[in-house]
Amino acid sequence: MLKCAGAALLAIRLLVMPAQAADINVGILLSATGPAAAIGNAERNGTSFGATEIAGHKVNYLFLDEASDSTAAVAALRKLFQGSQIDILVGPTTTPGSFAVIDPAVEYRLPVITLAPVNALVAPVDARKRWIFKTTTNDDHEATPLFAHMKTNGVKTLALIGFGDSYGDAWSKVGADMSAANGIKLVADEKYARTDTTVSGQVLKIVAANPDAVLIAASGAPAALPLLQLREKGYEGKVYGTLGATFGDFRKLTGAQGDGIFVPLSPAVGAASLPDEHPAKQAALEFIRRYEAKFGPGSRNIFAGSAYDALLLIERAAPAALKAGEPGTAEFREGLRSAIEGLKGVAGSRGVYNYGANDHTGLDQSALTLGRLEKSEWVAVP
Predict the structure, then answer these.
(1) Beta strands in 184-293 (DSSP E)
(2) Which residues constitute the signal peptide according to the record (predicted)?
(3) How many whole angstroms separate alpha carbon 273 and alpha carbon 116?
(4) Do both 35 and 122 map to the same domain?
(5) Is residue 238 part of a domain?
(6) Does 200 lie in the same domain as 167?
(7) Residue 17 DSSP label
């Protein structure tokens, strides 16, 4: 009799004990190897600061390398979903990889926050792209402060030199369109490979064209090459760069010769020089403080900021998504998608995010200002 009563009491206790909350699984798919590894590894560093628990649910971050390869990106996404039942994906790093994962994401009804910059990944928002968001600005956002400065300062002729790949090609189009819109004549458009060790031939052509300004459409250390060789050839006109110049060893390689180059400046890099009323300044300073405490002084960069912000968005959206269903279910994934789409006024390292049913970019022109390199520091131009 006592044994039966004890068993009954245990059964009652088991019935009334709350079930353990299901874990939230976040897939992280980045380029740890391959041509985009420098960017992907910076992004992975940025994912070091995600919440470990949200609304009583443990959060797991599951990383796979997509090796800067579209086929590998699709295979890795399928592995993450089928093997670990991820609720959302952050990544891929590259534009081609991000386009490639759209189809399986739609198949799984899986929200994705890509870290690639191309607006076509998220616009127009349709039945497929409703699952895709991003935490990066667009090329036209970058170009706007640069060309506004050119126009104000009387630039009439411009030469472009950039990577001979999709990045450089995109800037060739932006450069041509923005030049035409601002009454500027594009007198040269030169290309070089990311692995080239000299661009002397291209620079000689540019110097011969004698433009008022040169725009370098490149990123990281390779962006330093045209600048150094332009200086070597005695070019004295204005020099502009893209957001990519604020990343990597550009400052280290150019030294004092880099001073004076104008770039679009993100709060993730230049928050300290922004006015106090800038809406993202405090959030960006917090990102910089945390990031540089872990990875060293001067290590902050836009790519880490993009990944950092992606996890911030998930942290903000997950509580609302949990009302739709438990992690691991289609209802929760749809809840996450809907909640991210509804986020407004979220200050991150790269700006203030305002998503909507027709806007999965989140950032607008206010996320970038004109910056300049002064004594090897990126500062906002008043």
Answers:
(1) 185-192, 213-217, 238-241, 262-265
(2) 1-21
(3) 26
(4) yes
(5) yes
(6) yes
(7) S
